[in-house]
Sequence to fold (816 residues):
Amino acid sequence: MMMPILFLLDRMQPLFRAFGTDYGQMRAIVAVKLTLDNRRSYATLGTLNKKAEAGNNAFVRMLGMYAFIGGLIAVMFLVAPTNESAALPLALFFAYVMVVCAMTLISDFSSVILDSADNAIVLPRPVDSRTLLMARLVHIASYLFTITLAIVAVGVLIVAAKFGAVAGLLMLVLSLLSSLLMVFLTNVFYLVLMQFISEERLREVINYFQIVMAIVFYGGYQLLPRLVDVNGLRQVFEWQWWHYLLPPFWMAGALEMVIKPVFDGPHAGLLVLAVAAPFVGLWVMNRFLSPVFSQRLAGIDQAEAGSTKPVARIAAQPAGSLAERISDWVTTSPLEKAAFGFVWHQTARDRKFKLKTYPQLGFGLAYVVIMSLNGGMGNLSKSSNFYLFALYFASLYITTAHHQLSMSDNFKAAWIYGSAPIREPGALLAGATKALLIKLMIPFYVLLSAYVLFRWGIQTLDDIVLAFFNSLVMLLATALNNNRYLPFSIAPDAVRDNATTRGFANLFILGFIGALHFGLTYVPYGVWVGIPVMATVAWYLFRRYRQTDWSAMQTAYPV
Amino acid sequence: MSTPVIDIQNLQKFYGSAHVLKGIDLTVSAGQVVGYIGPNGAGKSTTLKILIGMTPDYTGEVSVLGYDVKTQSMEVKRRIGYVPENAALYDLLTPIEYLHFIGQLYSLDKTAIQKKALELLRLFQLDSYADARMTTFSKGMRQKVLLISGLLHNPDIIFLDEPLSGLDANAVVLMKEIIRQLADSGKTIFYSSHIMDVVEKISDRIIIINQGRIIADGTFAELQHQRPESLEQLFAELTGSEGQSTVAGEFVHTLNS
Fold:
């Protein structure tokens, strides 16, 4: 990927010089960044934690997914309309392209845009802020353009087939312009955020933003097909004044000129907006935003360095009295208590963990609500037993979260487990699991069951209780079946030995318990009888888990 | 005294509400080795970052080589070298690739960089690692690469922030000698460290700062003249952390209790 990009850059050299960048420096920075991306052991591009060899494949797979979903949407929107009615579906499609670009930029590339590792290396060198910002933009654009091409590939083909090659080509160009515009808007977004919040908070906010985005992303795919009314797409589109305010309509209007074809003032205006806005944005970024941006960015490290005081104060507090009180209540040994407190705090602060866990939980809830309201997707949700299925969502997500618990970017700190005189690692595992149960699973389950109770009535109570114990059994059985690691002790990409047989065994456990529950609902009082049995099983499994000794552990800490 | 290469007048710096530098006045002339020392959080690294033009939001007058570091930071950066304290480099690159990259940022000629970088790596006994990724490097090896990357463009002033950390004893001797000879050839070295006996030995002039203010300034002999002790003791006395042995006693006592 690197060579073609550098080749293209060399062709566009005069353009960059016109923007006042030092081309030699910019090319060097871009080349180094692309090299680093290739060699990174796990791609920081997004949350794809794949090994170096897999890194490129992961990106290709991601592209495949973008192309597939983009293709579906293109088919949905773009096949039906005629020349007269094409504007709205096109605008919706461009809106989709823009939203995906913006989301990708914020969730996957914020680390690139806000990369403060550059500070120590590049900022002391005679590189001006324009050149640095341009290098960053080119680096990001090289990925974003590839992604955009993947998204619009099918759409462009459809448009080209229906309305001619010129329209297809124009659509391609407009799509790339859309992504460029999004780069500008995302930068403005960051700058505005940086004005209002401190740099350290910024990372927190972006983290939460990523979580929300992920929920919207998942949820959007569920909702979108339901929102589209195919007949509506065939209606002749009337332009309204407010359409001129929305960028997707600029693109759609410009394209409509060729498709309809129509040449009038309003359309010419839209074409000008579509073409000019991204370049004006680029110019504004280059002229006004880049100095501010770099300066703010340079502050990130310093803010971190300067924030030693509040951190010390937090540490000096009696370690979050809530966690303390709960752990007094639920843990039975000092080791358990230690792991409980550790996991409790770490799961609240480790951004990677939060990013991998919370979106799924949020989506789980949203999914259940949407499915139960909508009744789409076959007869699964129509059946009165849908709530049973919904109740096991908690178990699925918490099992994943439990798995995440062993991973941390800071895994090297796990030497402490090796140097401390720990006789029974099972106590650590037990404490960690308890913290996860109390902090994530129980609140999530309460929310879920509250909704189920509200929607399906009080007679579901027995199922709710049984499903809770079943979920515990599933979680513990999976944990016992998998490799056991101490909390936050292994590198994020190290968990690859999860053999397929194990995976199948886990699925089997889940399926078996779920089927059991379903069967019991047909037996009078079956569920009520099942509850104490499964509670006992859960208790037994937890005991087994707690008794894990060193021989059963996968010690991944560097000794 | 010739025209100063570093000239600081009433430098003040805030991080948020924290007053980090509370009026630093300082001039340095060419060919000096200046040891800039102070306890953690005294403002050493902040001063360095301002001097190299990385931190433009300060108040006061700061010029380096006659250029104002606020408005002419590119000219400053081109002619100074900086070796930061927390060994940040792109360790997925090989030393040669990294030095190439850095050289390009100074718009140096490619073949010249290549030749120079290889030769410098050889002198630091890293030539057999020239094409190995730095992820596997020890702290000392990284530090050597970092030192080369700060000096590659032959700067007139060299800012070193804890430059000897992680180096083995031989490399420390070598580096001290390099610093000395660079100074003798007319270059200025501005050197920040916590290791007192090194500062004591290589510095022509020692500046001690504490809580954002300069509290001592002079040759080691001059400072010693005031109180005939080692720099370590002098430092402790001036920065108000005397009686460390009492603290140590309490520390051990607390452990035992």
